[in-house]
Amino acid sequence: MVDVSQHELVPDHTLLGDGDLEEVLEEYNIEKTDLPKIKRTDPALPDDATIGDVVRIERDSRTTDTAVVYRLVVE
Amino acid sequence: MSQHAPKEIHSLSFGLMDPEEYREMSATKVITADTYDDDGFPIDMGLMDPRLGVIDPGLECKTCGKHSGSCNGHFGHIELAAPVIHVGFNKLIRRLLRGTCRNCSRLTPVDGSKYADLSEASEAADEKLREFRGNLDEARSLRQDLSDELKSAMRTCRRSSSDTNEDKCPYCGEVQYDIKHEKPTTYYEVQRVLASDYPERIAQAMEPDEEDGERVTPPELADETGIDPGRVQEILSGSFRPRESDREAIEDALDVDLTEEDMNKLMPSDIRDWFEDIPDDDLESIGVSADKSRPEWMILTVLPVPPVTARPSITLDNGQRSEDDLTHKLVDIIRINQRFMENREAGAPQLIIEDLWELLQYHVTTFMDNEISGTPPARHRSGRPLKTLSQRLKGKEGRFRGSLSGKRVNFSARTVISPDPTLSLNEVGVPDRVASEMTQTMNVNERNLDEARRYVANGPETHPGANYVRRPDGRRLKVTEKNCEELAEKVEAGWEVSRHLIDGDIIIFNRQPSLHRMSIMAHEVVVMPYKTFRLNTTVCPPYNADFDGDEMNMHALQNEEARAEARVLMRVQEQMLSPRFGENILGAIQDHVTATYLLTNTNPEFNETQSLDLLRTTRIDELPDPDRVDDDGTEYWTGRKLFSELLPDGLDLEFTSSAGDTVLIEDGQLLQGTIDEDAVGAFGGEVVDTIAKQFSKTRARIFINEVSSLAIRTIMHFGFSISIDDESIPPEAQEQVDEAIDGAYDRVQELIETYERGELESLPGRTVDETLEMKIMQALGKARDSAGDIAEDHFADDNPAVVMAESGARGSMLNLTQMAGCVGQQAVRGERINRGYEDRTLSHFEPNDLSAEAHGFVEHSYREGLDPKEFFFHAMGGREGLVDTAVRTSKSGYLQRRLINALSELETQYDGTVRDTSDTVVQFEFGEDGTSPVEVSSSQEKAAVDVEEITNRVLDEEFADENEKAEFLGERAEPTNLSEHADDWWMAQSDD
User: Fold this and answer.
1) Of the given ranges (B52-56, B341-345, B821-825), which has the lowest mean pLDDT?
2) What fold is seen in the domain A4-74?
3) Pairwise CA distance, residues B363 & B919, whole Å
4) Quick one: which of B198, B295, B707, B710 has the fewest CB in 10 Å?
5) In this structure, which CATH number among 1.10.8.60, 3.90.180.10, 1.25.40.10, 1.10.274.100 belongs to the domain B591-718?
6) Nearest CA in chain A to B930
7) Cα B536 to Cα B429: distance, rounded to the nearest angstrom
């Protein structure tokens, strides 16, 4: 089967460590559940992602080079 | 309205109403269906009881003592003779009936028959309930919709097997039956009982069949089932109904089904009893809060009667009273309720009672919702369906969309719009009669006292007057023609004067449909005579307005904050750049574009008088140095030179115009090129766009205003008109066109012949038929194009139609081709016209005629005129276009509504994130880059933010001296303290 996470159009999804997560939540002054969500079954997720994890997605952007988004893994 | 509005709403809770609560809040019990007595007074405990509130002025409310207007009204109640179902809760009632036990009313998340014993089953059920609670907690923490959890929990609880009586309650072991719901409010329990024809069925099964040829004798049957042989005989004769266990034994032995479905109707009272027994804990685990919403409250025993203020009766001209629809419905309910009670007390037969019950249910149902499928709507005497509770709330004209989200406002005006090129694009001409109706509040102080008195002295009818004054004690006085002089002298500092709109006031202007933010912009008032709003034609594109009868709305602003905000953010010039494509949406249109083209394309010369006349309406009052001086000393200025006068100094630009030449602007001087649509047009004219972005929006506004002024004078100078002769071509050109079309016909004929011989080769992926169609279309398309080219060659460059098409003002070369050359192939759904009769389009043609003219090729031009067949085909193609636009607008309107509703609560926060109202992050940075679409380049080729260009501009401004700049950038190495021994080397590095 094709591993979509290796496709050039799929941005990098990396799991966020506890410390980094703390920092992100601190920065935006939010709870973990206020983050956008991503399904556990999403093929772009790393294999070891479990429900409750937060992934960091780094996209290419025409204007800012890279745009970073955080998502909470659900279900 | 309540006098003491709560300052802050702490929380809202939604739930079902306890019947006891209905009784408590009720001002009176309603028992009589009558409204008024013979003298016209409301009857006590009737539907218009004065305790339910007052609507007639002068009367006093018997509950709160207030008068009509200040009394909100009070609810009453009707004690229903028997419980009825509330239609709004049908879904939940059905779910609960299917998911709870008919005996003990507990939830049945597992099938009890699947477990060895009851304790094991109830253990499993408890486990499931805990799981439901867990899911609920999780959904709560993720702020998801809890009703989804309820739905999925109730799906689990629903009986698994619906056609057998196998499903058992895990708690009490009771067999559960399927629930059937008959819309709108009837529920049945479907049980399987012994069929009435059981002896026949048994006898049938005992007969020999193909598989086992043996006939089963009664003794054998008795043997097999263990039933007494005598009893078997009785069963077979039909004189004894087998017991449940015996029936099952027989069914097993003979492999036969002896049951049939029995529908057992559940009366609302049965359902109420059933729901009353559902334990609170079970409710909690499906997300229902038991103290707020007990399920039995979904079955009404008390009906609240809305206050009379919610259903006012109106007195007609002839003195007759006409009641509200809701009152009519309540009358019906009370009447039936009364009859129900009387019949029951009189001991009427069950059948009659049940009929009345159903009737009561019908009336209560239609009282709530009169548009339920499957039930005839309750009608007024005239046959009009009644507007009951749900109809009052629903839809576009309902309470929510019609009265709460949108309502009619004061200080607004609407009238027809017309053009006025002498106005600035920031202005709007307001008719004097509108200006004297819309007012602005003046707070009078020492400095504007005289001014305020002047307004008041003018009275309400003379234009810069005033309509009202407000004294410091809060009294509001109307200014009239009679009292204005007198009142003017009384005005002192501290008063408020509602004065008429005057020139320079800011107002909001809007044209529907408001599809983007430029549909609502702020304008400055210019008071004018006559009855229309006047606008500068350059603001037509953002409003999408024209002057064929369009009307627009105006709103006068009522406080300083709003006025300031409108002036800073909403003024037309501030909305110059569209966030849709990041370029200007204001600019020259139509004749403006034609005029700038005429002025700059051939670069004509003007003498002094002409030049000054062209620039008359701009701020330029001195001509630059002339471009040419005649031998006799007459000075001449070129069109480009005059145009350059409007450009700001320091503007450098190079681009290709839509006329095709290169436009070169250096330091605000147009050196070369044609100014047309691509330069100054709305929707991304380069010059306008650059001025707005590099200079300021104010400068751009001045530029657009002046370009349009110059353009109007230019086009008046040259004169510009178009007639039918401007599209005619000389006879020799017509011959060429005819030749070209004849050639195409021959080619089509050739193609058809090849096809008929079966020699046509199909293109990849297409059938032969499709290939033929494609090739014919191609040939005919080419014919039209070459006809167009021939026509084009014979048009002079100053042909008005050519000028308009070239400059981009209006029309295209294709339009011109169709007018002068050949209209070309008509198409429906992208194909040549194929519909009509069997195997042909019109009866004028032979069947299966594949030729061009038989399938909608129009060889004439619009100027020549179409022949009848061509006309018909042209109408077919034209109709498709009309239908398409009609469908597109309605579809896109609905899409727009959905999108707006979905996105309306998103907001960019001060930290740059985009969040919804529950603070959930939608974007971590607005648009993922935090840039405004109007501040970045919209072109696909260039970078969105050209850092290079920006730094260059900043550096140029920072360092006047080229050397300093080079030094700053480190481009030029400064001599360091070298040893004198290096002097030779050092000298060699420098130029001298």
Assistant:
1) B52-56
2) Eukaryotic RPB6 RNA polymerase subunit (3.90.940)
3) 45
4) B198
5) 1.10.274.100
6) A64
7) 9
Helix (H, G, I), strand (E, B) or coil at B75: coil
Q: Measuring CA to CA, which residue among B500, B462, B499, B456 is closest to residue B479?
A: B456
pLDDT band at B896 (very low <50, low <70, confident <90, very high): confident
Note if the bond before B513 is cis, omega within 30 degrees.
yes
Which of chain A's residues have a Cβ under 8 Å away from the Cβ of B143?
33
Binary contact (B143, A33; C-beta < 8 A): yes
Residue ranges of the alpha helices (H) in B346-448?
350-368, 389-393, 432-435
B31-50: average pLDDT? 81
Lowest mean pLDDT among B597-601, B835-839, B964-968: B964-968
pLDDT score, position B955: 81
This complex has an ipTM of: 0.92
Query: What residues does each domain of chain A span?
Result: 4-74
Q: Do A28 and B928 touch (CB under 8 A)?
A: no
Q: Name the pLDDT band for B973 (thresholds 50, 70, 90).
A: low
Q: What is the CATH number of domain B724-884?
A: 1.10.132.30
Largest CA distance in chain A: 41
Closest chain B CA to residue A71 = B921
End-to-end, the C-alpha distance of chain B in Å comes to 93
Among the partner-chain residues B911, B928, B936, the one whose CB lies closest to the CB of A28 is B911
Asked if pLDDT for residue B4 goes beyond 80, the answer is: no
Say how far apart CA B44 and CA B31 lie, in whole Å: 9
The set of residues, in sequence order, having a beta carbon less than 8 Å from that of B319 and lying 6+ positions away, is none
Is the CB of A36 less than 8 angstroms away from the CB of B925? no
Q: What is the mean pLDDT of residues B764-788?
A: 86
Residue in chain A lying closest to B925 (CA): A67
The domain B443-493 is placed in CATH, from the list 3.40.525.10, 3.40.710.10, 3.30.1490.180, 3.90.550.10, at 3.30.1490.180
Span B140-168, pLDDT tens digits? 887 778 888 888 888 887 765 555 556 77
- Domain-by-domain residue ranges, chain B? 88-295, 324-395, 411-438+501-571, 443-493, 591-718, 724-884, 947-992
**CA-based max dimension of chain B:** 144
- Cα angle B54, B58, B61; round to 5: 35
- Window A:9-28, CB contacts with B under 8 Å: 28
CATH number of the domain at B411-438+501-571, please? 2.40.40.20
Q: Cα Rg for chain A, rounded, in angstroms? A: 13
Per the listing, tokens 């011989």 go with B757
